[in-house]
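Incident review: delayed structure delivery

Summary: a single-chain prediction request sat in the queue longer than the usual turnaround. Root cause was a stuck worker, restarted by the on-call engineer. No data loss occurred. The affected request and its eventual output are reproduced below so the record is complete for anyone auditing the incident later.

Affected input:
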Amino acid sequence: MTPYIILIYGLLVLAGGIMGYVKANSMASLVAGGVSGLVLIGSAVAMLRGMYQVGWWLALIVAVILLARFGMAAYSSGFKMMPGGLMIILSVIAIVALLVGRTR
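Output delivered after worker restart:
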C-alpha cells in the first residue's frame, strides 16, 4: 500500500510544480516540483520492484524536505491552504504512511 501512496504523492507534487509554473510563471516551482515529483515516483517504482529500502529512504528524505520547506514558509508568512497547506498535509500523510510501512 505504501508504494502506491508515494506514487500518488509524487504525481501530485509533479502536478503542483507544473501548476505553479502555469499560474505564476514560476520556473522554481517547475524545477523543484518536477525533480521532487520524479524522485518520489522513482522511489515508489523502486519499492514496487524489490528495492524497497532504497525507495523508502528516498521517499522519506524528499517528504521531510518538502514538509520543512512548506512548513517554514507557512510559519513565516502565515498559513495559506494553497499550495503550502496542501503540501504540508500531503507530506505528513506520506511520512506517516512510510513510517507505518517501514517493516516490510
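Verification: The mean pLDDT is 92.
Action items: add queue-age alerting; document worker restart procedure.
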